[in-house]
């Protein structure tokens, strides 16, 4: 059986992952309003990835006879001053998730919860990628500034990203 304090932390992390997903979906909608469909598509892929992260924790609880308890998800921010500001908020969110993952890893080690430790090692590596990817976008947005042609090209680049399911997700939308 999984220890109650571990179960609680995993349930909290499930909520955090769904909260992140919700924030990315709201950002995607904002970019759609701005006719920046490449950014919107990138953020939808990120939304899908965050849902998958939540489900990894959910499934971990189920496999270990824990009880997933879904929590409230707050309304995310829906307006942004600029594309750069939206991605700066995304970076803050990723950094928040990284801190939570590290906190959970420390708890797993203290409680000798080797299965959770193993799962969290994947998430630790994943968070390095997540932060690097978002920081790269911020750096590019700083570079192009308000330049329309630069933003157009960057939007096209963002649209090239596909979610885990790639073309299957696109086909189901059609």
Question: What does this entry show, briefly?
Answer:
With 174 residues, the chain is mostly helical.
Care to describe what's here?
- By secondary structure, this protein is mostly helical.
- It is built from six helices and no strands.
- The chain has helices at residues 4-33, 37-63, 83-110, 114-144, 148-158, 167-173.
**Could you give the count of β-strands?**
0
Low-confidence stretches: 164-174
* Distance separating the two termini: 44 Å
Instruction: Specify the structural class.
Output: mainly alpha
Strand content range: under 5%
The run of helices and strands is: HHHHHH
Radius of gyration: 17 Å
What's the tally of helices? 6
| Helical residue percent band | over 70%
On the 0-100 scale, what is the average pLDDT? 92
How would the global form be characterised? elongated
Reported for the largest beta sheet, the result is: none
Chain-wise SSE layout:
Blueprint: H1 4-33, H2 37-63, H3 83-110, H4 114-144, H5 148-158, H6 167-173
Output the keywords.
174 residues, mainly alpha, disordered C terminus
